[in-house]
Amino acid sequence: MSDKVKPVKDLTYNQAFEELSEILKTMQSDQCDIDRLAALTRRATELITECRARLTATDEELRQILEGLEN
Q1: How many structural domains are present in the chain?
Q2: Is the pTM of this model over 0.85?
Q3: Helix boundaries (H) for 1-71
Q4: DSSP assignment letter at 5
Q5: CA of 57: how far to CAs of 13, 46, 63, in Å?
Q6: Is residue 1 domain-resident?
Q7: Residue 3 covered by a domain
């Protein structure tokens, strides 16, 4: 993970998911620095929150589109 961290809102969904995957790999490795654990957990929480919000928004938009097709 880079020292220059982009704000979560500036990431695409795929970028956020990829970063989250990298964080998970780091946390699961034997080289996980305990001093970075809290920061990694905070960042992962931000990424999860943003990904969940985007998935929810996309789900709602798709439901509206499909409802429009039914009408």
Answers
A1: 1
A2: no
A3: 13-28, 37-70
A4: P
A5: 12, 17, 10
A6: no
A7: no
